[in-house]
Structure formats: C-alpha cells, structure tokens
Specification:
Blueprint lengths: L6 H32 L3 H20 L4 H27 L1 E2 L5 E2 L2 H12 L8 E2 L4 H36 L1
Helix pairs in contact: 1-2, 1-3, 3-4, 3-5
C-alpha cells in the first residue's frame, strides 16, 4: 500500500489537531491558572502563562485559524461557566452519598463538571435549593456541546470542500 502525504496534507492534519486540542489546553490552563490564584503555586502560574503564550503564537502565525479562536473562546466560556456554577454550589452546598452537606471547592467543582456534561454519577447531588441551578447547568451544557459539535462539523465540511476543489 502506497501512502504519501503532501506538505498540504500534513498542514491540514496539524491545523485539525490544533483546532481540537488548543481550546482544550487553553480551557484546562485557564482553570489551572485561576485555581492557582486562589492557592498560589508559582509553577502553576508559569504553566498557565507559558501555555497562553504558545496558544497566542499558534493562533497569530497560522492562516485560516479563525475556528481555533472561536473554539478557544468557547473553551474559556466553558471554564468560566463551570467555575461559576461551582461557586454557586459552594454557597448552596451539595449532598454527598451520606446526605452530608459539602461546601469544599474540589467537590463542588467536580459536581459542576459532572452536571455540565450531564453524566450524573450519583455520588453528589444538589440540595433542595440547588436543584434548579443544577438543571440550568445541565441545559447550558447541552447547548454548549451542540454549538461545539456544529462548529467542528462546519470546519470539517469546509475543509472537505477545499480539499475537493484542490484536486
């Protein structure tokens, strides 16, 4: 089997990988950086600043990377939304398996991520006051992932059309 990649194909693969992984890395390091501000550790701040600089360099130097900018913004919005909901859960509290009200950051952030993605493991659940907040977060997660999937689908469709035009 003869499999050859042209330079254009390699660039397309790299662009596709950057489109998917750059927003995830930016979102991860935004949470990482914001968490380190609450409990400062110098290595976390350096990691966050370094990743931001690398992401900026990638976006500025690459052509036709507008979708990466959009997905990065979407990733940042995701992190802000999950973090904000976890703050609300810290104030309202969540219930663990033994029905004890929990207010710590890690448990509330974990519950917020699980609720946003609508996994619902059952190890934590909202209090009576937090049920509508959890329902709102789940709906926000549905909308977010719908937008994310539509953006990726349009990117794939546009790249497919460009590839066919070049042939």
């Amino acid at each position: 089997m003869n499999f050859r990649l042209s330079e254009m194909d390699v660039r397309g693969v790299m662009r596709g990988m950057a489109t998917i992984f750059l927003p995830l890395a930016a979102g991860y390091y935004l949470v990482h950086l914001s968490y380190s501000i609450l409990s400062p550790r110098s290595d976390a701040i350096v990691d966050g600043v370094t990743m931001f600089a690398l992401a900026t360099l990638l976006v500025v130097t690459a052509r036709r990377m507008f979708l990466v900018v959009q997905l990065t913004a979407l990733g940042i919005l995701l992190c802000i939304a999950v973090w904000t909901y976890s703050d609300i859960y810290m104030k309202l509290g969540i219930l663990d398996v033994s029905s004890t009200v929990v207010h710590d950051r890690e448990s509330c952030l974990y519950f917020s991520i699980i609720t946003f993605t609508t996994l619902g493991y059952g190890d934590y659940r909202p209090t009576l006051d937090g049920r509508m907040v959890a329902a709102t977060e789940a709906l926000t997660g549905y909308v977010f992932f719908g937008v994310f999937i539509s953006m990726i689908s349009s990117y794939v469709a546009i790249n497919r059309q460009e590839y066919r035009r070049r042939k």
